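Hello again, I could really use a second opinion on something today. Take your time with it, there's no hurry, and the full record follows here:

___
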Amino acid sequence: MASAPCPTCPIFPRHVCRRHSRRRLASTSGATLIDALLSASAAGITELLSPYPPGWGGTLLVGLLHSIEIALGATCLGLLIGTGGAYGKLYGGPVVRDLLAVYTTIVRAVPELVLILLLYYAGTDLINQALTAMGYQRVDVSGLAAGIAVLGFVQGAYSTEVIRGAILAIPQGQIEAARAYGMSPGLLLRRITLPSMLPFAIPGLANLWLIATKDTALLAVVGFYELALATRQAAGVTKAYFTFFFAAGVLYLLLSLFSNLVIGRVETWSRRGMPSLKEAR
């Protein structure tokens, strides 16, 4: 015997229409529950990442600022060491070249975390022992200064090789012409070597800058307050590990994207007067 048609939907039998109604009700309830959960989750994440208490967004931004300070200081120190090291390797005496070769080989061979632990603890201890031996009181080394010194020492070894390669890429005719005009080594460096080597050095130095921004996270192991340590503290208190470490990753990514934009402008400026890559092809 055929089932009676549904009064509200004559096309389908009554039992089929009731089944569809239950399915629609279940799907509507599920969608409502998911929307409520997503709204609550978004509100919770917004509250956690708020820059105002009880949010931890301000803490992350302070940590990011400290990371940028260390990376800037370490990069500048590394450039100074690298410029001197490159000139020493190219134009120094045998002893200077051998010492610089040992320095660059050891720093590039030993993991950076090991170097940071060694230089941070052993370096500060040696400084205090030397001061005590000379009759002075022990000093507390600033965490910012120690972080810049440690990462700058590491960056200097890599910068030495990058700048040395860039100097070797300069056409030797320019340097020989400057020497024929009687330029002193300092004037030759300022007017010929540095401007000519910039287009060759910037790509490698840009990579070192991006590495320095990430290497600041290694200083968390010695207790310096930067983005990685701030993220770990916020996640430990709130137990929202995924939220905060994902937010830290986004901040590192934004810093890298902004750095790439600035580096691209600097590289274009350094190549002014030179044929473009499209013309070279």
Q: What stands out?
A: DSSP finds ten helices and no strands in the chain.
